[in-house]
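Work Package 4 report. The design task specified in the project plan requires that, given a folded chain encoded as structure tokens, an amino acid be chosen for each position. We show below one input record used in the internal validation round.
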């Protein structure tokens, strides 16, 4: 699929903008603080309805504005779809997002914050796996929301303390936690398995080395994926859960192990290797997402080439040439073949 056009109104530093990108690689350059990342964020918002940079909707509208909008046209072999999304402030002062969705639209975004997938806390890796799983399995995010609701209710019971709690009161929530939790774990494991084969190929091609890269899902209930194992783990943790007032077993405690040549990349890989590995993880999503959605995802790569050696940069550019539509930002021109070149200046964009 491709984005045929996009129009912005009061989005970040853009008062208004109309942009018709090229169907293949779009290289977007410009000085810092001119709006390159903001444009990529708007493209992602158009595709998915969410920002890949922030969860705070109030940060997105232009300063002093009471609303913001992004609209555009998606194209694929089967036809054209027009989408419009808005952000508006309610009477209570909260920001609310509204708009249509396109069921076959997919985006894969890379930004500096993604480095936390490799070197950050387990929550960043869980978010990565859930985001990827959501692109593969349409109901995954709804299941994740349901799991968090069950988890919150169970935690409230645990926070009542031993005097107000009995194992029987937890039973209905244990049942739901296990049922929904196993569904999440199963999808996450299948997603990690789907990305593993592609990751080995992509990382080898980008790094130009024979380092072995491996990702493995680490569930706190162990390798088993059955109700009995989950229930037994909850029973073992019951005393500690009551004392701590929180659920200690479930997919909200799981992690993703990322290794280079059998060594934990979080601890022992250099920053450059960690950045390259993070980029490889994002690019390894392309093929599984394409197969699951039936259409190619749009790539949004924000300053993806910084901190990389010249030879590695060439490998990255060669890899993305095989994708359908790419938006790549950079502070200065880069030798990308077959690329349409654009420059962002003070809230506008022109052909370079």
């Amino acid at each position: 699929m491709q984005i045929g056009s996009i129009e912005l109104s009061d989005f970040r530093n853009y008062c208004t903008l109309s942009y018709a990108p090229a169907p293949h690689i779009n290289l977007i350059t410009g000085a810092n603080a001119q709006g390159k990342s903001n444009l990529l964020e708007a493209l992602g918002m158009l595709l998915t309805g969410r920002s890949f940079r922030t969860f705070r909707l109030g940060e997105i509208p232009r300063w002093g504005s009471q609303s913001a909008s992004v609209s555009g046209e998606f194209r694929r072999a089967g036809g054209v779809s027009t989408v419009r999304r808005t952000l508006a402030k309610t009477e209570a002062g909260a920001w609310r997002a509204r708009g249509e969705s396109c069921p076959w639209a997919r985006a894969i975004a890379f930004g500096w914050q993604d480095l936390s997938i490799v070197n950050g806390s387990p929550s960043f890796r869980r978010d990565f796996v859930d985001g990827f799983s959501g692109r593969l399995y349409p109901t995954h995010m709804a299941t994740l929301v349901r799991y968090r609701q069950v988890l919150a209710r169970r935690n409230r019971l645990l926070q009542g303390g031993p005097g107000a709690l009995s194992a029987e009161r937890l039973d209905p929530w244990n049942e739901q936690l296990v049922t929904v939790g196993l569904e999440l774990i199963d999808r996450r494991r299948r997603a990690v398995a789907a990305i593993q084969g592609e990751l080995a190929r992509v990382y080898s091609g980008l790094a130009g080395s024979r380092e072995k890269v491996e990702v493995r899902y680490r569930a706190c209930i162990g390798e088993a994926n059955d109700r009995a194992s989950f229930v037994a783990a909850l029973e073992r943790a019951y005393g500690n859960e009551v004392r701590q007032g929180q659920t200690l077993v479930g997919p909200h405690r799981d992690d993703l192990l990322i290794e280079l040549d059998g060594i934990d990349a979080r601890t022992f890989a250099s920053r450059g290797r960690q950045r390259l590995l993070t980029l490889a993880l994002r690019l390894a999503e392309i093929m599984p997402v394409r197969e699951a959605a039936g259409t190619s995802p749009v790539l949004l790569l924000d300053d993806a080439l910084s901190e990389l050696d010249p030879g590695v940069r060439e490998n990255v550019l060669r890899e993305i040439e095989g994708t359908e539509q790419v938006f790549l930002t950079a502070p200065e021109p880069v030798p990308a073949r077959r690329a349409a070149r654009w420059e962002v200046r003070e809230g506008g964009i022109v052909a370079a």
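The CA atoms of residues 197 and 296 lie 18 Å apart. Validation will be extended to a larger panel in the next phase.
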